[in-house]
Design a protein that fits this description.
By secondary structure, the protein is an alpha/beta fold. The chain has nine helices and 18 strands. The strands form four sheets. The protein has a six-stranded antiparallel β-sheet with strand order 11-10-13-8-9-12. The chain has a five-stranded mixed β-sheet with strand order 2-1-7-3-5. It starts with a strand and ends in a 6-residue tail after the last strand.
Length: 338
């Protein structure tokens, strides 16, 4: 048996012990702590933490979940991490979020369904159980595909609305995708739908310094929820969002973003399109539009959500330009191909 010190970002440290051959994630769960995770088999990267000390073995994970650069930087996947000595790891979440609670299915009904573009749609789920949900802006749930045993992970694109108890999501439309096909061909207002969660350590922390938000495609969703939260509380620090897509037709929710920028002091937004054929004024990738003022000489919290190539590109950009922010929170996702 080895001892693990789990150091949470709110300054709390918890100690747990592993059984022979047990992973760190399983040991924590057995001890009443739920390190954020989704897959448990080295595929999603949700349980990523930072190793501070100790020896361990870590195998059977894919590079999309943990890159070679991240391994060299001391990052670990706790679902694949088996100890060979006492260890200490930093968990990128608060201890409160990681206290294990019983996960129950949440039942609701489709409240709204809107095709935003050829590539994106939004839907809302409402009901008494949805209205009672507690989640942090930026977290996600698993949405069960009706009529199947499959589920898909989607970040909340809104807070729960007090007026009707609904919460919203963005979906990238994938040809022949299970959820895409259901939502575009079968779904109707009032249909029953089931959620599980919430999950994830990608969420808006207390704002203590300027924030730079970088969104790619439907990675915009968690930032919409974050901006809604900031609108409710206000902030004295500048917050800038750069939203990047591939084609003009992929730009969605621009009116909502502009409304946030005009109604919240210290919040600004911009969007860019990567296609050379774009008619949008700002072209290129999000990294082409990061200004020195957004980085505040490194005293900045960067939040990034997008597909794996975007996350890797931003990480390399930061490394090449010696950008070391106070905090770097990110979540990468890949649309299911079925």
């Amino acid at each position: 048996m080895y001892k693990i010190a789990l150091n949470f970002e709110d300054g709390v440290t918890r100690f747990v012990h592993t059984l022979p051959g047990e992973t760190v994630a399983d040991a924590a769960y057995r001890s009443g702590l739920n390190i954020p995770m989704d897959c448990r088999d080295g595929a999603c990267g949700t349980c990523k933490c930072k190793s501070e000390s100790g020896q361990f073995e870590m195998t059977d994970y894919i590079e999309d979940a943990l890159s070679d650069d991240e391994v060299r930087a001391g990052m670990v996947l706790t679902c694949c991490m088996r100890l060979e000595s006492d260890c200490a790891i930093s968990v990128p979440a608060s201890s409160e979020v990681c206290v294990r609670s019983k996960q129950e299915d949440i039942h609701g009904q489709i409240f709204a369904l809107n095709r935003l573009s050829d590539s994106t749609l939004s839907f809302s789920v409402a009901g008494d159980q949805v209205k009672a949900m507690h989640f942090l802006p930026g977290q996600y749930v698993n949405v069960h595909v009706p009529g199947t045993d499959q589920k898909r992970a989607y970040s909340f694109s809104s807070l729960v609305q007090a007026s009707n108890g609904s919460a919203s999501f963005l979906i990238r439309i994938v040809p022949n995708g299970l959820m895409s096909t259901f939502m575009t061909e079968s779904a109707k207002i009032g249909d029953e739908i089931k959620l599980s969660g919430p999950f994830g350590s990608f969420y808006l922390r207390d704002i203590k310094r300027p924030i730079l938000m970088l969104a790619g495609g439907t990675g915009l969703a968690p930032f919409l929820a974050m901006l809604e939260s900031i609108k409710a509380t206000g902030t004295s620090h500048p917050v800038h969002l750069i939203y990047g897509v591939t084609y003009d037709s992929d730009l969605v929710e621009m009116e909502k973003l502009e409304a946030f920028a005009s109604s919240i002091d210290n919040v600004t937004v911009s969007a860019c399109v990567a296609s050379e054929k774009s008619a949008w004024p700002q072209k290129g990738y999000v990294t082409n539009h990061i200004d020195a003022s957004h980085l505040n000489n490194g005293d900045v919290d960067i939040y990034l959500c997008g597909p794996p190539p975007m996350v890797e590109a931003v990480s390399h950009f930061m490394k090449e330009n010696n950008i070391v922010p106070a905090n770097f929170y990110y979540e990468k996702f890949a649309a299911s191909s079925h």
